[in-house]
Design goal:
Length: 201
């Protein structure tokens, strides 16, 4: 009796099948790398946004700490300059001695100034300047004045790319808001800051 075994035929991949397989593999690898790149970009954007939010929060905490601890003899001056597209402000606090280390040396600042500086891009930088001497004139004093300091010994950029930055000061006597303040011997009852950061504010 004779048993017929099924014949085994050799099976090989054709060139067309190999090309299709390579194309599918390339698409899958591309999708994986695209997803990984998108996830990485999203992660970087989230980290950058969180860093910016922390910087903004630190800026407001600095202002709150500085204004809440002003001594009674503080000279407060707020000036506004119109630069067509923005109102540039200089907020100066005098008689607020601050000691800190700058360039490896112990320094004391008698006056600090928070200024808006217009950039070529149209945005603003918020700059904190430190002065060793007095920068505001004392028109009420009859004693000869010391020479006023015009150049800061230290500058720190606190915020960048600010699109809007304006102060208002509330007079505690008249209960009116002012955009500038040059009243000697008196601090405003309240300060209001309105600001917007970046293109979308």
């Amino acid at each position: 009796m004779r048993i017929n075994h099924p014949t085994r035929t050799a099976r090989a991949f054709t060139l067309l099948e190999l090309v299709i397989a390579m194309a599918v593999l390339a698409v899958v690898v591309g999708m994986v790398f695209g997803t990984a790149r998108t996830s990485l970009q999203l992660g970087n954007t989230i980290v950058q946004t969180q860093n910016e939010e922390m910087l903004h929060q630190a800026f407001f905490e600095l202002l709150e700490k500085r204004f809440s601890s002003l001594p009674g003899n503080t000279r407060f001056d707020l000036t506004v300059t119109d630069s067509s597209s923005h109102y540039l402000t200089d907020l100066t606090l005098q008689n607020v001695p601050l000691s800190f280390t700058w360039g490896g040396e112990e320094r004391i600042a008698k006056a600090v100034q928070l200024s808006t500086v217009k950039k070529r891009s149209g945005f603003l930088d918020i700059v904190l300047r430190y002065y060793e001497g007095e920068v505001l004139e004392d028109t009420e004093s009859e004693e000869p004045e010391e020479e006023l300091v015009t150049e800061p010994f230290a500058e720190i950029v606190l915020l960048e790319d600010v699109s809007y930055f304006e102060w208002r000061a509330l007079d505690g006597r008249s209960m009116e808001w002012f955009y500038d303040w040059q009243i000697q011997g008196r601090l405003p009852l309240q300060l209001e800051l309105v600001m917007a950061i970046g293109v979308n504010g």
